[in-house]
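SAMPLE LOG
Freezer: B-3
Tube label: C17
Construct: single chain, 434 aa
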Amino acid sequence: MKRRLAIFTLLLLLGIPALAQEQEQEQEQEQKPKTGWKFTPLPNIGYSTDTGLGLGLFSDFYYYGDGSAYPNFLHHLGFAGAYATKGSWYFHAYGDSPTLIPGVRLNGTLTYRDAMVHKFYGFNGIASPYLPELDANVDTRTAWYTLHRRFFRATATAMGSIVGHLDWMGGLVVRHVIHDDIDLERYDSGRSLLLTYRDVGLIRADEFKGGTSLEFKGGVVYDTRDVEASPGKGIFAELYLTANTDLSRWKYNYGQLVAHFRHYVTIFPGRWVFAYHLGFQHQLWGEIPYYALNEMASSFYPYEEMDGLGSRTTVRGIINNRVAAAGYAWANIEFRVTPFKFNLFNQHFDMVLNPFMDICGITRTYRLEEQKAAVSPYPDIPLYQDKKLPIMLSFGIGGKIQMNTNFVMSFDVGRGLDPQVGTWTVSTSSTYLF
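STRUCTURE (predicted):
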């Protein structure tokens, strides 16, 4: 079955050039520029392996003015909220305006998320053993990798031109994180990896419950994309420093170097794009509190939570939050194939397929020597395994429905190759991964 699926996918991709050329010549659909405000209030129905079925509402408001900038926009406001069946809910508000202040692009977000079944798999990825039988299970009252997490974030970012396509970028981020043991009666709330890490000293007593931080960030952005929401060509690169100040104790202050390089290459105009993203996030100084390891720095925040290597926001097919360390490097590589374009109800639609490969690794470990020396109070559950930190790979395929270029509904299925860190993951979102 797997061989047949692979052959079918290969034939589909090989046949796309002929299909693209035929459709371009015979019945290419013309997108008419949009003007004024356009909005899409829709039910927020999605699914993620990590959170379950999500039910809620969302709406994107785009302002195109007289249409001369289309398919790019002049202002964008977005609101989303949902409850997920595995025990979490969130609210996320997003604003982005390249034109509100001439010469300066402004971006801001406001996010709150309450996750009663958030996952914690220990430090340093595969160095922490993963025992699937200890994951959340009502029958055995097991929730070894589960905790209750509440998260608040407010961000503000500004960008302006230096020369040509090179911009400066600066911003502020306020975060407040609260961690606690799982409080659902159907699980054994007195036995978990979180509590064990605290008891053996891998998590300090003063950081166990979480904390509040203020982040300053500044750097440069290089952007030559033709269309922001779904680029067909161009480069979008970022290089910046973050300085995080611990407002709770003035103890866990740290700085990071963050780099992103996204490249979009047109193979067949309007039909086939090769896209890849190289990401890097590395601690340079200070000490990161354990609860901030999985917060991925970003110049903008399209998701309610940029949370950890793995799953829908970074590396598809890797278990969400499975890789927690002080430094990461990762890559996303995919083809974006558009076999169908059509107009319906005066709206333009594109149907996109994107087979992908994702790669990730650790560039700086976190409390690794302490982890090696820690003695587990449970002889059958080790806290460390002597395995090299590998390059982790995953493969998969996604599907996209684009309406008027900027509105994107995305569906991705991925599989990690190493069962210690990867699994089948399924996720939906309202944008491309990158």
